[in-house]
Amino acid sequence: MKITKKRFVLIALFVFPLLFFLILSTGINNFKKLPTLTYNVSLDKIENTSSISLRDHVTVLCFLGNNIDTKKGGLFNLNQKIYKEFYGYRPFQIIAVYPKSSEKSVQKLKSDLAAFTDMSKWNFIPSDENVLTLLHQNLKTDKDLDTTFYSKKAYLIDKELNLRGRDNDKENGIMFGYNIESVAELNNKMEDDIKVLLYEYRAAFKNKNKADRKN
User: 126 CB contacts (<8 Å, ≥6 apart)?
Assistant: First the structure.
């Protein structure tokens, strides 16, 4: 049978979308979740967190330290490459914890960010230095906070209070956090991993709706 131009158009309209759906379905079924590296991360020991929760949020957690003026480049990277990409998603937030002695520097940082950023999903929490150390230890990473209580790593916490990351990264092996001082790492790794985590929740929500409709 000769395939005319009209028949080719009809095939393209009906067959190609079907093939695309089948490929997409296969991708969903074979979808690999972002690895869980540490369970049960908590902010319980930090004061003034009654209105801020890790539960039911996709949280980026970072430690600002008490030398903020010299480290703010990484925070601006995080703001530009991660926060602005995801703040429109309802569960997304950034929590930045810092020593109480850094309050003045944090206020300046917030003012600088607010000049070109909707700050609604940024949360800044002061705390005692020993509590910051305990919180970071609770993450069970392979690094400690430095002597200023700063970490160049930002950590991804899921809705169930678990630390997510990579357990077989080509360059780093286990990746507990993402280097905010590296634009490339934020672009090529953290952004991708947050998308994977958000997709994981979206797929779970769709599957739950399908199961509810069947019952």
Answer: 47, 48, 97, 98, 99, 100, 102, 103, 106
